[in-house]
Amino acid sequence: MTDKLREEAKRVLREGIAEMVIGWAEGSAEFKTTPFFAFTEEDCDRLVWNTACVNNLAKYLTDYPKEKKIALCVKPCDSASVNVLIAENKVLRENIYVIGLACGGVIDPIKAADAGTCELSDATAKYACLHCVHDKPEVADIVLGEAERKLTPAGEDMPPFEERRKYWEKEFDKCVRCYACRQVCPNCYCEQCFADRTDPKWTSRKPTAGESWMFHAVRVMHMAGRCVGCGECERVCPKSIPVEKLSREMAKYVKDIYDYTAGMGEKPLLGTYKDEDYDAGVHEE
Amino acid sequence: MSEYNPKILAVLCNWCSYAGADLAGSSRMHYPTNVRILRVPCSGRVDPMFVLKAFKSGFDGVIVLGCHPGDCHYAKGNYYTRRRIPLLKNLLANLGVPEERFHFEWVSASEGARFAELVTEFTAALKELPPMGKMI
């Protein structure tokens, strides 16, 4: 698979389809890969594809001007992120070349290091992969390889209603407000985040449970109908807060009432409406 | 100990619901004084952040009122709100905030009596619950 990927990357650069290829390369430690930017054919020999390729590389697209021709390696979830960016006019479809990779799930580097193996199993898989909803890359110019999903889907993980307020208070109390979850998210691209604004001051920078509650709640609202469930926010959290849990519940609800899956639509969910939408303002007498 | 009086934020759209509240006032209707009114140009202006910030700051309940679908002064503002509000309700439920604390309804300029009734009912429902408490 890695060979096929390298061949394709070389072809893309040789034929001038793109100026650079964004992919993964061997990382500094075992069980880890690092995002890698290949500009020449020699660089392409460093690209790899394995179960440790966890990073969602769609994050890098918004760092470059729209006009730049970029080739990007994506897993199915990353591909959904790319589609969200396309729907929101942040990238132009014709200027990106998407190399889709069939994926049956990736590992969590920490869990894999504990287990001492890169072999994909329920015990080593990234948590988001157990909730994965993406079978194939939504946007791709070419799809390499074949994969079968063998992971056991995880069930309901939200605590019962009565315990939720306490649960989140405890979790958000751990938050140090490093904003890693925001920085790693491919679809969090605002030039000025509400959390950084002092006027109006939506939330202060104090890392208290209440302020973090506000930050995370608003983040979920901003990601409503946009979060593709790649689980990067959860992976990078230094305090292991299950930050994606709320977004995951939100995605399920969006699917229920609007039959919409983030990254699968041509238009953003909240930028459109239908006359027959569910009406919460009508209460039966 | 004094009686518990819930603090309520009412976000009203300028063209229908605010006029409805105005009608309730000028018709001398009685409704609880627990409600603090925030006037917005359209219910489409109601950012979910308003509601979250209100709960964070210690409001016990939030009620959002707008023009009936089809009656929006800006033609389609309330349709966008209609899409957004159920998602906010879902988020609040997942955060452990009871759904009785957040109410969303359509109230037109002629429905002064309905506004008074809604606010009365909402206040009564909130009195059944313990105070929200400020999050720090």
CATH topology of chain B: Rossmann fold
Q: N-to-C terminal Cα separation of chain A, in Å?
A: 61 Å
- Structural class of the helix and strand makeup of chain B? alpha/beta
Distance between the termini of chain B: 25 Å
Q: From the helix content, strand content and strand pairing of chain A, which structural class follows?
A: alpha/beta
The largest sheet of chain B, given as strand count, sense and whether it forms a barrel, is: 4 strands, parallel
Q: Rounded to an integer, what's the Rg of chain A over CA atoms? A: 20 Å
Indicate the mean pLDDT of chain A.
88
What top-tier CATH class of chain B fits best? Alpha Beta
Chain-wise SSE layout:
The complex is a heterodimer of chains A (285) and B (136).
Chain A: H1 2-14, E1 20-26, E2 33-38, H2 41-44, E3 47-48, E4 70-74, H3 76-87, E5 96-101, H4 109-115, E6 142-144, H5 161-174, H6 180-184, H7 209-222, H8 232-236, H9 244-258
Parallel strand pairs in A: 1-4, 4-5, 5-6
Antiparallel strand pairs in A: 1-2, 1-3
Helix pairs in contact in A: 5-7
Chain B: E1 8-13, H1 17-26, E2 35-40, H2 48-56, E3 61-66, H3 77-95, E4 102-106, H4 112-128
Parallel strand pairs in B: 1-2, 1-3, 3-4
Helix pairs in contact in B: 1-4
Structural notes for this entry:
- The complex is a heterodimer of chains A (285) and B (136).
- Chain A is an alpha/beta fold and 285 residues long.
- Chain A contains nine helices and six strands.
- In chain A, α5 crosses α7.
- Chain A starts with a helix and ends in a 27-residue tail after the last helix.
- In chain A, 42% of the residues are buried.
- Chain B is an alpha/beta fold and 136 residues long.
- Chain B has one domain: Rossmann fold (3-Layer(aba) Sandwich), CATH 3.40.50.
- Chain B has helices at residues 17-26, 48-56, 77-95, 112-128; strands at 8-13, 35-40, 61-66, 102-106.
- In chain B, α1 (17-26) crosses α4.
- The model of chain B has no long low-confidence stretch (mean pLDDT 91).
- The A-B interface holds A 158, 161-169, 194, 202-203, 208-210, 213-214, 217-218, 220-221, 224-225, 246, 249-250, 253-254, 257-258, 269-270, 273, 275, 277-283 and B 48-49, 52-53, 56, 66, 68-69, 76, 79-80, 82-91, 93-97, 104-106, 134-136.
